[in-house]
Amino acid sequence: MTTILSIRDLRKSYADGFEALKGVSLDIREGEILALLGPNGAGKTTLISTVCGITTPTSGSVTVGGHDIQSDYRAARRMIGLVPQEIALEPFEKVMNTVRFSRGLFGKRANDGRIEEVLRKLSLWDKRRNAIKELSGGMKRRVLIAKALAHDPRVLFLDEPTAGVDVELRKDMWEIVAELKAAGVTIILTTHYIEEAEAIADRIGVINKGELLLVEDKAKLMARMGRKQLDVLLTRPIAEIPASLARHNLSLGAAGDVLIYSYDTHADRTGITALLNDVAQAGLVLRDVVTRQSSLEEIFVTLVKGETQ
Ligand SMILES: Nc1ncnc2c1ncn2[C@@H]1O[C@H](COP(=O)(O)OP(=O)(O)OP(=O)(O)O)[C@@H](O)[C@H]1O
């Protein structure tokens, strides 16, 4: 698969000396959707801003489609679209003009047919003659996307695209992202919503304190996430797990009164029925059973916590 965006040992120290990126390296494949997860202040926006040429890196390099973002910035920028986190739009400007203007900024020749397509896709066509200030918050977000798409970028960055939007608009956004992917656009989005990453990403990257902790295929992470734990609480502690239960791969809690069973929720059979039968056959009496799901969120929290220790 072709690499469209290559980030090498990217570092960013702000004027006050704060190191927001501590050597991030990442290759992004053409046509994929990568979700970047990270707590507040992790460096997600700094990373996106640097790649998009809004922030200057302290060191390291970034190429987009082979174009260096510093020495060949015009060509690099033309390939990129950015939907920023904050809504910064001219309130009195008309929707159509705002989007037209964005296209012009990238030196692309005017193409109202294309602008119409983009506005229709984002359900903004009926609002094209309205001033920005007459739009709802959700529509303003759509305008931000329309602006970012106006020059037909190959790589689209979405910084928290669905923060504070309603469920319907979130679903619409996901659909738009899926359509763009189908059209071959590479998408990098930051999000705080784990379910958003689950719903639309091909790969997931976790960033914390300026460092990329993990980049992994979502399917693999989901497999990890699919693990569930069943705690079988016993009325009386036991010294060891009976041999008749060996096939269930159980572990025994420290106090000897909990049998811990880990299983895959995606498997056809969880093995719970057989386990509980065997537990009863072994003459053990249950006090309670408790299940616990290890989620992507937990994996994320564990990773981020591990870093701070
Ligand atoms: N201009 C600046 N000068 C100094 N420090 C900055 C500047 N911009 C950002 N930072 C700091 O860099 C760190 C990373 O900020 P950044 O906005 O990249 O985080 P983020 O992961 O996008 O967070 P959030 O999820 O809150 O949007 C933060 O500690 C922030 O305070």
UniProtKB/TrEMBL annotation:
Pfam families: ABC_tran (PF00005)
Domain ABC transporter residues, every copy: 5-234
Alphabetized GO MF terms: ATP binding; ATP hydrolysis activity
UniProt cross-references to CDD domains, sorted A to Z: ABC_DR_subfamily_A
Sections of the chain in a coiled coil: none
Domain of life per record: Bacteria
Record's keyword annotation contains Signal: no
Gene3D superfamilies in UniProt: P-loop containing nucleotide triphosphate hydrolases
Keyword list, A-Z: ATP-binding, Nucleotide-binding, Transport
Presence of the UniProt keyword Transport in the record: yes
Protein's name according to its UniProt entry: ABC transporter ATP-binding protein
Organism field: Ruegeria pomeroyi
